[in-house]
């Protein structure tokens, strides 16, 4: 039985070129490759940005095999390497010699209850966002383990995993969470806090394995809300509640030997200064 590598890319030329290089190298190393999962797939490679990885994991229905990400996108928080041949060789070498770790990312499971329709179940790697339709103020009753917490009014609520803490959650003022912690972070997006509407103005952090969050929309002028899962938006009518909790489903990421979560946070969030220093250095060289 030949071991198989499943490869997916976004539409960028560079991603397609990297895919070709990866296919050649894996075939030379005795593997088969495919676009879709096969029973022999032992690794999925996503070439693109973080969005490509999120999309691929969703399209392949969160399989049990590890993912490996090559960044040809903008941020590439999930990616282990850049689209560079030396880095690709380092990766393949590490892979063949089993010099890697596999990180497990805990997913959120959520249930959407409609007035008439069946319950819909879905999963998120980063987050589930509930927001108002047509940019209207959303009014959302929030319950934790059945206890009423608040009626949130504002743009929406983000329910984020630790993995998603560095994504939309962070832009909305939420905290970055060590990815070893299993939590759900509820972060308000532009909460209104006035005499008319009172909402928490900061995030709430809950133990994911012991909490169930329910968001029950209150409709004023519009019966619709938007539910955005890892960046993919769907409009829903007449939703009565959205229940979110942790699931046993996980997604696995292959990490090379030098991976460390907080180093990744530093490199992707704060290292801008060094880029500027490099720019200055190259400008100086150019003007010499
Ligand atoms: P996108 O608009 O390209 O994503 C926005 C940025 O978030 C991109 O730079 C993306 O990286 C980065 N990102 C995604 N997951 C991340 C993570 N876990 N940690 C750190 N950064 C992360 O859309 P997309 O690529 O399809 O990604 C979907 C995600 O975008 C959603 O899950 C949501 O978290 C995020 N988002 C953020 C905002 C905001 O910050 N205001 C608004 C909407 C959505 P790449 O450049 O590598 O793709
Ligand atoms: Mn993106």
Short structural summary:
This protein is of the alpha+beta class and 288 residues long. Helix content is 24%, strand content 41%.
CATH topology name of the largest domain, in short, is: Tumour Suppressor Smad4
Gyration radius, to the nearest Å? 21 Å
Q: What is the terminal separation in angstroms?
A: 59 Å
Number of discrete helical segments: 6
Ligands, deduplicated: NADP nicotinamide-adenine-dinucleotide phosphate, manganese (II) ion
CATH architecture of the largest domain: Sandwich
CATH superfamily of the largest domain: Probable inorganic polyphosphate/atp-NAD kinase, domain 2
Shape: elongated
Q: Tell me the count of domains.
A: 2
List the secondary-structure elements in sequence, H or E: EHEEHEHEEEEEHEEEEEEHH
What does this structure look like?
By secondary structure, the protein is of the alpha+beta class. The chain folds into 2 domains: 4-105 and 250-283, Probable inorganic polyphosphate/atp-NAD kinase, domain 1 (Rossmann fold); 108-248, Tumour Suppressor Smad4 (Sandwich). It is built from 6 helices and 15 strands. It has helices at 13-28, 50-59, 85-96, 168-171, 261-270, 272-287; strands spanning 4-9, 32-34, 41-48, 67-71, 100-114, 120-124, 127-132, 138-144, 147-160, 183-191, 204-207, 213-218, 224-229, 232-237, 239-256. Strand 13 (224-229) and strand 14 (232-237) form a beta hairpin. Helix 1 (13-28) runs parallel beside helix 3. The chain is elongated and about 65 Å long. Residues 275-282 and 284-288 have low confidence and may be disordered. Bound molecules: NADP nicotinamide-adenine-dinucleotide phosphate and manganese (II) ion. NADP nicotinamide-adenine-dinucleotide phosphate binds next to helix 2 and helix 4. Manganese (II) ion binds at residues 49-51, 73.
């Amino acid at each position: 039985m030949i071991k198989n590598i499943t490869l997916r890319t976004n539409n960028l030329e560079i991603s397609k070129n990297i895919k070709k290089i990866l296919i050649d190298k894996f075939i030379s190393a005795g593997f088969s490759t495919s676009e879709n999962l096969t029973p022999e797939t032992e690794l999925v490679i996503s070439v693109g940005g973080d969005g490509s990885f999120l999309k691929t994991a969703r399209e392949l229905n969160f399989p049990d095999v590890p993912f490996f990400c090559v960044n040809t996108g903008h941020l590439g928080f999930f990616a282990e390497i850049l689209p560079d041949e030396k880095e690709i060789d380092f990766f393949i070498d590490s892979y063949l010699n089993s010099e890697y770790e596999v990180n497990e990312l805990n997913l959120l499971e959520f249930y959407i209850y409609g007035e008439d329709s069946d319950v819909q179940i879905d999963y998120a790697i980063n987050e589930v966002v509930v927001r108002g339709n047509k940019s209207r103020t959303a009014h959302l009753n929030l319950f934790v383990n059945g206890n009423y917490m608040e009626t949130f009014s504002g743009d929406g609520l983000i329910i984020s995993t630790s993995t998603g803490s560095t994504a939309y959650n962070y832009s909305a003022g939420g905290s970055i969470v060590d990815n070893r912690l299993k939590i759900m972070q509820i972060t308000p997006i532009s909460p209104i806090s006035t005499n008319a509407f009172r909402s928490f103005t900061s995030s709430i952090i809950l133990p994911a394995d012991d909490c169930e969050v329910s968001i029950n929309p209150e409709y004023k002028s519009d019966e619709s809300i938007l539910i955005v899962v890892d960046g993919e938006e769907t409009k829903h009518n007449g939703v009565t509640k959205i229940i979110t909790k942790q699931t046993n489903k996980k997604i696995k990421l292959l990490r090379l030997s030098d991976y460390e979560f907080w180093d990744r946070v530093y490199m992707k969030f704060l290292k801008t200064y060094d880029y500027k220093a490099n720019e200055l250095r190259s400008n100086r060289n150019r003007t010499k």
